[in-house]
Structures are given as structure tokens and as C-alpha cells.
Amino acid sequence: MSADELRTRGNDFFKKSMFHNAIDSYTKSLELSVSALTLANRAQAHLKLAHFESAYADADAAVANDEVYAKGRYRRAMAALKLGLVERARRDCEKLLKDDPKNKEFLKLADEIKSAKRVSRVQLHHVNKCEMIRSNTPLMEIAIEQNEFLPEEPKPETSEKKYELPPPATTASQFLVDYDAMKTRDPEYFGKYLLSLDAKRIPDITGAFLEGDMLSAIIRGLQSVQSKVPSEDLAERLVAVSMSPQFEVAVMFLEESEKRDLEAMFRLFEKEKEDFLRQRYL
């Protein structure tokens, strides 16, 4: 069967609410030809199954494949909202409404975003390692609490004296929530947080979400702590990040100044690690 025929077959399964079968057909279609339409369709099937991380990853890949494809951006916003990533959902929704201000679905999404707040941590006990094309992990149903989003309540004005690092993330969604909370703070917080992660898990927990801005934040964070920790710890994290499935795309967006900072950091490492990281990042 052709990619188009497999996508049509997936659509037929979707209409019958046979979402696992639909995902299987979409995956086979993507093995033959990657398209924003098929990725967005698979994202919608994942949304129906409450596989929100996988839905986000597919929708994100759809947007990367075709930035003007509204359904991909809309489904990415839906998945982000379900994961408690309200600011990300808001940015996508604003873009959608800018292009189509009278769309009822987009307006409804905007209302949902207004009445939701970001959760402090997302507790998901199933992680579907969703690569752009195929995952070897069987799809599973997961139970999602329905009270993830609560009405906004006025908060007393307090000045934050010290920011406490969250526990090390063990899932992609937890990492993304923590990243969003730290990306505008002193880079040293994120650097210390990165060092608290199990390096072997970094490719998995950054895999679906690694992008240029996040990679830049990782570099700034590690640079801010480079004088306070063993150089091998820094090298281990940089190697792990470079193994992320989205790294090849993210590294293309590094600024020349960031590459110079990396070069200075690489000189701290043993020759073998330095050569490897130069090949990956520079």
C-alpha cells in the first residue's frame, strides 16, 4: 500500500474509534513518506487515547514539517494544555487566532487556556518514547486525572527569596515543565538541575521537545557551573544531550557566540571527549 492509502486506512479506523489501529496505519504511512498531515492525524489519535506526550511530539513534528499547517499547531496546543504547559499552548493559540481570528475551535481553545493554570509538575506514569516515525514501545492506555486544570486564584504578592530546584525529572513531560519554570531564571539553577539528572536518561527525557532555545539554555546552564563541578560531569551531559533524537535540528540554530562558549568549555575535557563534542556541536 502507498503512504496515501495507509493514511486513508488510518482515517477509516479513526472514524470507527479504533485509535490504536489508526496509529498503526499512520505509522506505516510515515515510514514511506513523512507528511505534516499524517503526523497531525496521528497526534489526534494520541489525543483521543490521552497519550499527551506522544500527541505533542507528533504535532510538534507536523509544525516543523509545515509551519503554516493550522491543524498541527492546534493539536500541539491541545496537547500542551493537557500537559499543563499553558504558556506553550497560549503561544500557539495566539498564532492560530492571528491567522484565523473567527475560528470557533481556536476561540474555544483560547477560553480553555484562560481558565487553566500551569500545573507545578505533571505526574505521568507511562512514557511513550515517540520518535517522528516509529516507537518500539507498545501503546498503552493511561489514566489521567481530570482535575489537572483549576480556575485561577489570586495569589498573595510575595518576593521570592530563593528558588528551590525541583526533583530530577524522570519523564519528558516533567522535564519540560521544569524547563519552562527555570528558563527565565539565573542559568545556574538550570545548570545545577541538569547535573542532578541521570545522564543516561537525558536523551529520552529531552527527545520529543529539544529545540534551539532549549539547547541554548542547556549550554548557558552548564557554562554557569563549569567552574564549580568536575569537567567530566559537564562532558557527560553534553554527550547525552547530543544523543537526543531532535539534536541534529536543534544544533542548527546555535548562535556563533554560543559555539565560541562551547569551544572554551570543550578545552576543559579530555582529548577524546573534546573531539567527539566538536564533531557533534560545531
UniProtKB/TrEMBL annotation:
<dbReference type="InterPro" id="IPR051966">
    <property type="entry name" value="RPAP3"/>
</dbReference>
<dbReference type="InterPro" id="IPR025986">
    <property type="entry name" value="RPAP3-like_C"/>
</dbReference>
<comment type="similarity">
    <text>Belongs to the RPAP3 family.</text>
</comment>
<dbReference type="InterPro" id="IPR011990">
    <property type="entry name" value="TPR-like_helical_dom_sf"/>
</dbReference>
<dbReference type="InterPro" id="IPR019734">
    <property type="entry name" value="TPR_rpt"/>
</dbReference>
<keyword id="KW-0677">Repeat</keyword>
<feature type="domain" description="RNA-polymerase II-associated protein 3-like C-terminal">
    <location>
        <begin position="169"/>
        <end position="259"/>
    </location>
</feature>
<keyword id="KW-0802">TPR repeat</keyword>
<dbReference type="GO" id="GO:0101031">
    <property type="term" value="C:protein folding chaperone complex"/>
</dbReference>
<protein>
    <recommendedName>
        <fullName>RNA polymerase II-associated protein 3</fullName>
    </recommendedName>
</protein>
<dbReference type="Pfam" id="PF13877">
    <property type="entry name" value="RPAP3_C"/>
</dbReference>
